[in-house]
UniProtKB/TrEMBL annotation:
Record keywords: Ribonucleoprotein, Ribosomal protein, RNA-binding, rRNA-binding
Record's protein name: Large ribosomal subunit protein uL10
Domain of life: Bacteria
Gene that produces this protein: rplJ
GO biological process terms, semicolon-separated: translation
Amino acid sequence: MDDQKKRQLVEELAGKLRTAKAAYLADYRGLTVEQVNDLRGKLRATGAEYRVVKNTLLRIAAKDTGFECLDAQLAGPTAITIVQDDPVAPAKVLSDYAKGSKVFELRSGALDGKLLSTDDIQALSELPSREVLLARVLGSINAPVSNFVGVLAAIPRSFVQVLAAIQDKKAA
């Protein structure tokens, strides 16, 4: 790769890292092209980008971003997953893939400028998705209103039941 292409790659990576919310590093040695493409497709579906990058280029691109903390983790063949949106969904995909593969290994990650260990990534992957959390919040907000409507509906229902009981008593 000539210097011009390296500069372009570093600028592109730096731009993506400046706007990224999270990044995960993995050791991909031993994966076949088909497996890498499968993983890429799964990550692309979550809005993340999976790339194999030289450590020196990634180190230069990560300068002055929230991902400088990954510098010490850049050793050996490195694949980086850059996450622009929800960091939970790609963490789930990577964790599941690492569990199912003997050769793919999550190394570390960064979220909002903080270094994540593999245990942290695993814990992050066990969180519910953003949509589920939003649904839970909306359910919690909606619960008092629903309960109040139920209480208001119970008053006429009770009154009708009392009238029905009186009617049954008079009929008997």
